[in-house]
């Protein structure tokens, strides 16, 4: 009986080393994992990696690609005649939006500012108008004001003002209207003061008469404003900067 044990073991060994089982017993076994290859997905991933690297390289390259553009050297008032001294230059990224290359300076000298331009602003073409800045249906009227006819701080080009009819004796006016009548509900100051002639080198010309202003007015109101101004019967008050006059500087 003991001699049958080795024979049984050898039989089991031959059975284990035989061909794989077939039939119902084999169907009960789970199939091993299959590694599915997706070459298209792998290629797409490589494209993303390469594209990201190229994009990063382009950003770094463009950040160092800078050009000289025009900036406002100091504040420029609406309606001001622009000179070369009003411009400076700044170096900015080449893809900066709505900038003017420094090489185009000559194209803007002699134009008029259509809006208030703060100092150090990157200028663009819509801020300037070639030729006359007076729109159709408007006229420029000069007014000389005494100290009691203007704000204490004085007026500057670009201010918006309201014009009142006044009289020294408090009753008689050149237009026949009562004192206190509103001549202009809102008007743009396009010039203020008389520039001093011949400033020394390195100095800025200043206004010699802060009581002299030029107003942009509707042509229908120009006659009575001129008459009142000639009689010294106009007083001006400054309005909020956001006030829009009925006629204003032309903007593109």
UniProtKB/TrEMBL annotation:
Location of the SAF domain: 67-129
Region entry Disordered, spans: 1-32
Keyword Transmembrane: yes
UniProt KW keywords: Membrane, Transmembrane, Transmembrane helix
InterPro entries in the cross-refs: SAF (IPR013974)
Membrane-spanning ranges: 40-60
Signal peptide per UniProt: none
Name of the protein described by the UniProt record: SAF domain-containing protein
């Amino acid at each position: 009986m003991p001699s049958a044990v080795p024979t049984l073991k050898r039989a089991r060994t031959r059975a284990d080393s035989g061909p794989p089982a077939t039939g119902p017993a084999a169907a009960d076994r789970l199939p091993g994992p299959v590694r599915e290859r997706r070459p298209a997905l792998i290629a797409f991933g490589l494209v993303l990696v390469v594209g990201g690297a190229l994009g990063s390289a382009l950003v770094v390259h463009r950040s160092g690609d800078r050009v000289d553009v025009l900036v406002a050297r100091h504040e420029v008032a609406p309606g001001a005649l622009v000179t070369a001294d009003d411009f400076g230059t700044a170096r900015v990224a080449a893809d900066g939006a709505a900038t003017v290359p420094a090489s185009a300076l000559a194209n803007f000298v002699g134009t008029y500012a259509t809006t208030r331009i703060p100092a150090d602003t990157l200028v663009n073409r819509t801020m300037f108008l070639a030729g006359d800045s007076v729109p159709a249906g408007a006229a420029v009227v000069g007014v000389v004001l005494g100290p009691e006819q203007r704000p204490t701080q004085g007026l500057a080009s670009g201010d918006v003002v309201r014009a009142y009819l006044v009289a020294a004796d408090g009753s008689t006016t050149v237009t026949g209207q009562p004192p206190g009548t509103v001549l202009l509900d809102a008007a743009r100051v396009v010039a203020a003061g008389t520039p001093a002639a011949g400033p020394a080198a390195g100095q800025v010309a200043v206004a010699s008469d802060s009581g002299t202003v030029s107003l942009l007015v509707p042509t229908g109101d120009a006659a009575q404003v001129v008459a009142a101004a000639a009689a010294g019967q106009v007083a001006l008050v400054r309005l909020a900067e956001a006030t829009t006059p009925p006629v204003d500087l032309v903007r593109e």
